[in-house]
Every structure is written in C-alpha cells, then in structure tokens.
Amino acid sequence: MASVSYHIANLLEKMTSSDKDFRFMATNDLMVELQKDSIKLDDDSERKVVKMLLKLLEDKNGEVQNLAVKCLGPLVNKVKEYQVETIVETLCNNMVSDKEQLRDISSIGLKTVISELSPTSTNLVATICKKITGRLSNAIAKQEDISVQLEALDILSDLLSRFGALLISFHLSIQEALLPQLASPRLAVRKRSITAIGYLVMSCNQNLFNKLIDVLLEELAQNTNTSTVRTYIQAIAAISRQAGHRFGEHLERVMPVVVQYCAVEDDELREYCLHAFESFVRRCPKEISPHVSTIVKLCLKYLCHDPNYNYDDDDTEDSMDMERCDDDDNDSEDEYSDDDDMSWKVRRASAKCLEAIISTRHEMLLEFYKVISPVLISRFKEREENVKVDIFHAYIALLRQTRPSISTVNLGIETMELEEGPVTLLKQQTPHIIKALHRHLREKSIKTRQGCFLVLTELVTVLPGALSEHMPALIPGIQFSLGDKNSSSNMKIDTLTFLNCVLTHHPPEVFHSHIAALVPPLVHAVGDVFYKITSEALLVLQQLVKVLRPLDQQSTPFDFVPFVHPLYECTLVRLKAADIDQEVKERAIACMGQIISNLGDYLESELQVCLPIFLDRLRNEITRLTTVKALTKVAGSPLKINLKPILGESMPILASFLRKNHRALKLGTLTLLDTLVKNYVEHLTQDMIKTVLIELPPLISESDLHISQLTMSLLTSISKVQKQPLLNVTDAILPEILNLVHSPLLQGAALNSMLEFFQSLVTTKLPGVTYRDLLGRLTAPICAVNGQQNQSSGSHLIHKQAYHSIAKCVAALTVTCPNEALPVVQQFLQELKSKRNVDSIQLFALLAVGEIGKHIDLSSIPELKTVLLDSFSSQSEEVKTAASFALGSVAIGNLPEYLPFVLSEIENQPKRQYLLLHSLKEIISCQSASPATVKLLQPFIQNVWSMLFNHCECTEEGTRNVVAECLGKLTLIDPGHLLPELKAYLSSDSPLARSTVVTAMKFTISDQPQPIDSLLRGCIGDFLKTLKDPDLNVRRVALVAFNSAAHNKPSLIRDLLDSILPELYNETKVRKELIREVEMGPFKHTVDDGLDIRKAAFECMYTLLDSCLDRIDIFEFLNHVEDGLRDHYDIKMLTYLMLVRLASLCPSAVLQRIERLVDPLRVTCTTKVKANSVKQEFEKQDELKRSAMRAFAALLAVPDADKNPLMIDFLAQIKSTPDLQVLFEGIQKDCSTTTTITDTYLMDIS
C-alpha cells in the first residue's frame, strides 16, 4: 500500500511539471496503474489523484487533456462514492463554462464516467444520475448556447439508455425539457432531442408515455410548418422503434395522421413517413395488420416516384445498345442527380419498408408475388445505385420467405399443382427477373452487379434449375465480371460464388454449350495473384469438372476432350506450389482429385507427374486429410485410374494414420483403405494388408461406433478378397469384436457391419472361425452367466441389449450356413424346455430362434409353436416379450403356416392377447418393409383387418394401442382401400373404438414422404374433428395425433390450423367439473381428470412453435401460455420451455406482453414450501424455480426487456435474495456457454 502511495505521489508531482512531455508521460503511467485490478488507493491518494486529474482537464496541451479524460474511466471504479460525486459535480460546472475547449473536454469526461459506472452499484449510480439529470435538464432548457445544449442532450441520451429506470422521479422534468426542443430552430438540437425521447420511452411509466403521444398528435394536428411536422413524424418513428410494445395501442390514432402527411408534396417528409411505417411494421406486428395493405400501396407508389427523370422503355433494346448507351446514361444521371432532388430517398425508404413487410408477413406471401414482385422487378432499372441495392434486398427477402413453402411443397405432388402457389408465380416471373437483371451484369457499377448476383444466387437456391433456359443471357455477364479491367477482387469472388451455386443446382447439359466461354476466365482466375480468388476459382473448377463429364451418365454427346489439359495444367501449377495459402493448397488437392477421378483416362501420361505430388502431400501433416479425401475420390472412380505407382509407399503411411489421435483422419483413411481393397486388390500384396491389419484392433470399441463400423467394413472387404492375412490377426481382432457385441450402445450401421463381417468370416472357412467356433464364442458369455449366478440375478452380467445383438449375429451366421439352421434351432428349443427357470438362457434362445426364423422357414420343426407358446407363461416379463417377438419373427419365415395360427390364438386366448398382438405387430412391421414382402402379406390383410377391429374396443388401453399400431401399419400398405375404412369407424358409437381409430391414424404419419400422404392430406381434417368429441379420452388421443402430425409432417395440418387452434386452446383451460376429491383414509386428495388432456394440448402448442409459427396468431397463443404459467407443476414446466423458445423466435411480441409474463414467474420463484412437506415437494419446487429462472433469463435477453420497470424490480429482488441469486448466476453461466444458436434462420415472425 505504501509503495503504491509513494509511486502515485511521484506521478502527481511530475504532473505539475512545466514540461508537457513530463505531464503526458506521468498521466499515461497513472492510467496504466489505474487499469490494474490490484491497485488500492488510500483516502489521501484518492483525493489528490481526483484533484490533479480535474486540474489537468484545463491543461494547455490537448494530448494531456485527452489522457486525463481517459483516466476518469478506470478511476470511477477505484475511488469512493463521494469522490465520484466530486468528479461529476466539477464536470457539470465545467459544462457551462465560457471556455469552449473546457466544455468539450468536460462533456467527453461525463460520457466516460457514465459509460464506466457499474450497473450493480445501484446507490452510487442513482445518486450520480440524480445529480447530473437536474443540471442537464436546465442546460437543455437554457437556449443561449447551442453547443452546451447539444452536449447536454448527448449525455442525457447516454444516461437514459443505461440507467433510465433509476431516473423515474426525473422523467417528467426530462420530458418537459425535451418536448420544446422538438421545435428548436436548430436541426441538430431536434435530432438529439428525438434520440433522448426514444431512450426515455423505454423506461418511463404508462401515463407519461400516453401524455407524450397525445402532445405529439396535438402538435401534428395543428401544425402548418413542414419542417416541424418532419420532426414530429421522426419522433413518432423513434418512439415506435424504441418502445414498439407500448406504441401498439396508439397506432389507430397515429396511422391516419402519418398517411395524411405522406400525401404532402415534400420528399423529405415522405421519407420520414415511410421510415415511420417501417418501424410500425417491425415493432407493432399485430396492431399494424389492418393497415398493411395501405402501406404496401403507398410504398409501391413511391417506389416509382422519380419526377425528374424519364425512364425510356428499354425493353426492346438489345444488350449491344445498352453498351453503346452506357456513356449517355451516365451523362443523363449527372444531369438529374442534382442536390435538390430528394426523391431517391423516398424510393429508398419505400424499398426498405417493403423489405420489412415481406420479412415479417409470411402469411401474405401469395399476395406479395401478385402485387409487390412485379413492381420490384420493374424497378430493377432504378438509376440511383443505393436505391437499386435496397430494391435487390427487398426481392431477396421475398425469395427467402419462399424457402419454407418450397420445403412443404416438395412433400406433396398435388401441392405443386396448386394453380396460384407462390412457387408457381415465381416460376412464371423468372423470365422477367432475368430480362431485368441480365443487362445490369454488364454495367460499370460493381455494387449493382453484386446485387444482381445476390438476387440470382437466392433464386437458384429457392428454385434449383430456374436458370436452365436463361443461361445464354447470363454467361456474357459472368465473363464480364471475371475480366480484370471490369472488376474488383470482391466482385470476382462474388461472381465465382454465384457460378459455383449455378453449376451445383442445374443439370450438366445446361452448360455444355457454354463450357468454351467459361473455361478461359476460370483458368485465368485460378492463376490470379490474390489467394481468395484462386481458392474460390478452384472450388468452381472442381464443380465444372463434374459438369464436364458426369460419371453417373453412361455417355454424353458433348466433346469434353479439348478442355481436359487446360484444366489439368492450371490446377497442377497450384498443386505443385508449396509457398501458397493453406486454403489454396487444400482446394488444389481436392480439385486435382476430382479432375483425375472424372477425366483420368485422358491423363495417363500426366499421372506419372501428378500422383507422386499426392504422395508428398500425404506425408505433410497439414495437407494429409485433404489428400486422403481426394485419393478416396480417385480410388472410387469407375474409370479405374492406375494407382499402382504410389500404392506401395502410401499403404504404410495410411496405416500409420490409424494410430493418430485425429478422428477425421481415421475416418477418411478407413474409407480410403476400404475403397482400395475393393478396387485395387490385384495390386495389394499380403504385406501391405498386414501392415493395415495390425492397426485395426484398437479401433474396434464402443467409444466410437462410427470408426468401429468402418473398421469392420474394411475387415469384411479384406476377408472377401484375401483370406490369408486374416489367419494370424483373428486372435487379436475377434476378442475386440466380441467385446463390442456386449455393448448396450451397439445398433444401426455399426451392428449391420458386424453382421456382414461375421457372414464374410464364416465363408472364409479358415481354421478357428467355422460356424460352430463362432457360435460357441458368441454364446459362451450367456452360458457363463448361467454357470456363475443364480436365476434371480442371472441376466445382469450382460446388458439386455447385448442379447439382441448376439441373437442377430447368430442369425447372420446361420443364414450364411443354412444347413446348420435346423440343428441349432433344435438345440435352442431343447434349452428352452430343459432350463425353464434360467431367464438369461430362455431370453437368448427365444431371441435367437426369432432372428433365425425371420430368414429361414422353420415350419418343419413340429414342436416349435408349442414351445414358443409355453414361454408366454413365463414368470419374467422380458421372457414373455421375447417369446412374443420370436413367434412374430418365425411367422415371417412362413406366413401361410404361421399367420393363421397367430390370428386364431388371438381369438382363442384372451389372457395372452396382448403378447400375441405384439407378435402380429412384428409380422406387419417386417412385412411392410419392401414391395416383395408386402405382396406375401396381401392375401391375409382382410382377415387381419377384421380381427383387429374385433378388438378395437378392448378396455385395456395397452392392448388398444397395439391394435391401433397394427391398424396404422396395415393402412400404410394399402392406403387407397384401408384409409376410407379406417375413417368410416370415426362415426362408431363406442368412444374406445373412436380413440383406437384416431391413434391408428397417428401411426400412419412418419417424417419421411409416403404414398399415403396425399390421401391423408384430404381426410386428416375428419380425424381431427374428434377434438370436439364428447369423450375426454378421444379428445386427448386426437391431440396426441395432432402433435405427431405437427412434429413429423406439418404440411398435413398447416391449412387446418384456423379451425383446429380454437379447439386446441379450449383444451388448455382448467375445467372445474373434472376436478374431484378422493378420500384416502383421514386425508382428502384432489384429483384433476383434465390434467392429461391439458398437458397434451400444451405439448401441441410447443410443437407448433417449431413447425407452424408463421400460421399462429402469436398474441392469442401468448394468452394461453399466460394461463399455463399459473397451472399445475407439469404444465408450468412446459410453459417455461415455451417462453424460452418464444423469447428467441418472436421477441417483439413477448416484449409487448412482458409485464403479464413476469408476474407468474415471480410468484413461482418466491413461493415457499410448507416446512412439514415431504422431500419430493421440496425437489419439485426447486425444479420449478430453476425452470422459471431460466425463462426469466430468456426474457431478460429480449432486446429492451431490461428497461421494463417490472423486470428491473424482479431482477433487484433476485439479487437481494441469496438463494435466488446463486440460482440465477448459475443459469446465466449455463446460458452464456450455450448461446451459439444453431437456427440461423431465426426470424422474428411475431
């Protein structure tokens, strides 16, 4: 402490030096000291430092003054409160000084102090704000000195934007000081007053806000001075921008006034009116709805407002004329772009307003294509560059809005045929877009050309193939922009990006006639000195090679041979160079890989030069991964490229990669090795393969199933082509595979590749891996379980999932060796009979018999049915389920034999009905997998259908659900006949039957396109009419089905939402008639029979946020979310999740309702559980608090929410309650680590 004081005293002494350099250096050193976190000043040092810095503000040297001001920032947080007050007091006094320089430096000092004040030290901030605010209000009201006024307004804006809520007692006086300034003769004063008013309305109370709007409207009503009218319109726009959530209720009064002033012949006023409209559209989405069409009309009118310029009808002129007229155009532009012409600002404001409307009104997309799109296209000819760019942006917004409807269109062919869909209209307008744009591609203006390419890129992304017929019109423009004299680096990069997009999204033959025009500029771009252009050009070149000679087409009439060598040569130059940018190196490798893969048969002599370079790149740590991917492409080429020259050296290098701790490299290398083994086996020696095999055992592990899968695929490929190398390694590899088979994580592609490996291994007939050897090694652990432990815990040594995996492996081996099938099944049946009390053996034997029976007809074993049915009586639920699976699977092997048997058992064995229905479900699921298997099931469908409907009124809900799933899966097989039958049962008198039918419909919906979709779209409305069913359970099931449709295939229900949403919202209400009291001994317990259906309704609402947000009235939606915030525990948890989603998806709507949303959250967080409650009650309340706090954190992240008085109060309450503060800080930390929102397409659709 003493040393710090001494050092500071030393610096202060130097600050009094007459030498300005001494003063400057001392002040600089002081700043360095103040920025250290560890510095602590005693009272005396504090006083002296503050005094000296304030004195230095009046220093004669400007640089010393500036440094002194900068020191105030860190100093504020290092000294005691009264010292900060002294600083502020002095600065305020200086603000009204006669010396202009001192005034300026003091105002900068005040801004610095305000920006450095910590929002957490509330008392200090409040004291200082109050001290400054009164002085500022006086300075603003005093009009003698404009510069003082301007500075005061600036500082007041800073104060209000950071600490508006702490100045509530001053809001009235601030407003009274600001309002007269809107009529100030100085424009700068008006502008800064508007900014300050904008910040004021974010935190002022409602009465003050209403008064402000009243004053502005009164002034507008009686004002005749156009200049002040402009200011008031700007003020209204600023208020709606900053406080749109409060402005909505005044919109009906404001709109007619702004529309009226829009008609006044004053371009500047019009511009401000259009800015106001844009602000209304973005910030008051619900309230502006009735006025959108009016605003659109005005925008379209003023988008064409150019009174000083006559646009000739250029449509008849060809592009040559355009070139010739370039200079004339420029002259005429100069002639009309005089300073008085403000009409371009009106046009630009119109374009921006249209962009706002298009971006926020997805539901009007069809109308936009009819009304707005043609006008925007016609205005692409705009003469003013800035306006033209904004028109392009508006059109891009329109195309982006079309993207979601494209994805729904692709799900159903009949939607494509809608006569007037947005997509159809866009297709019809595409020729007009090209006609309007292609001439601009030859303009001198780079900004215009970039805008054109952006529009075209978005068009191609939305409508792949849209430019197929228009390529001849676009190619000259592409050539022009790739030329050196016409373009900047960015222009070339944008052109190449567009070209890449076009090549990717169009069929190859579209370009064949233009290749000769495209290759020279591309080759030139690859040789460009700027690495970014080279890199982008190589990417385009790679795509062009695929277009030049598509390998998936047998033969092309196009002669590509003349282009092979130019492309190869220009890429080779980049491939050889070692001193180039990393990105260029990687893209040169990838591009050369594509060239060899597609054109290698014309480059046989060149391969001698090129392949050794690949070998070098493979040895380089930086380029090895890219080279592995490129070689994979080459090795997989149907042209059978000769890789023999590099195989010998590359195999050991690739083997070494499998040891590296680099996952992507391992994955790439395994894929490459697999391709090489399949396609180049004649060039691979046993030693090469052994080098690889040694590295494989460590890769087979449950810690990375993808690598395990590729490793086993590679082993399968090796075992098919060379058996010898596997002799020695089986001992190392097989134990790893047998370990993996016991993993509960093994499934999907990894399991399939294991099955293929076993099948391939057993066919090698190598010693030690015969059928019996492998069967013994697979089943040994199960026998060991039986030997080691008693039956009660026998099955816990191996995970349940492992029984299924081992059974599949045994079945795979048996299918490969079919003569072993009957003996091994007999063996399993024997174990089923003899070891009835050993669950693990029973379970495995049943699963294995089932898996084998799927592929091999076991009907020749007479006792099979009896033994399987006996297992239905087991004490263990798992064995029963396995028996049900086994019976279903065995039936698949011989349907005519087993399916009638299963159906008769379902009818005759009511006690086993549930399990037998599961067997039936297994049969239907497996048989509906392919057209061939469906054909086998076809003769039985009617019988199964009838039987299922006999049981659809079963009182057991579990049984009904299985019946419903079977009905749903059968309907998918023959939707044309069975869906109408299913629908007919909706009129059944039995509520149980109706609920089964609706559940069955749910099982026909999947997230993949299905033939049933078009039929389902026509009748899903009838199924969902059950939302009005008198029976509670039927309504609940209908909600579950609706939720499934909204999640998996939203296109089915999007158009029905208008009729469904009222029913859905109706089910979110608490119904008193469904709440009953149940006596439990001396206690009374409340039971709410409506809870399940309310939960189902809120789950539907949550799903709709993801899939159909653009079709929802968000304010109506929020009404029901508010109700949910006060409901039962389960529903509160759901609504908290919804709030988090809503805060990011439609922040402006949430902001408007924020006061009603915060209150329930506060109630939850401050509720105390009774002291004598059970532990679960405390845990529930903690979980509720955590979720409510997470929702509050999400609300706090909404822009401007932190200015709301209720939010500020709750935040203060949280910070003053220790346990809530700890919880809140933990949640904020979690949020900050997961703020990387992946939905880049999160639009505010509120």
Automatic annotation (TrEMBL):
Keyword DNA-binding: no
Principal subcellular localization: nucleus
GO biological process, alphabetically ordered: SCF complex assembly
Subcellular location as annotated: Nucleus
Keywords: Acetylation, Nucleus, Repeat, Ubl conjugation pathway
Protein family membership: Belongs to the CAND family.
Protein's name in the database: Cullin-associated NEDD8-dissociated protein 1
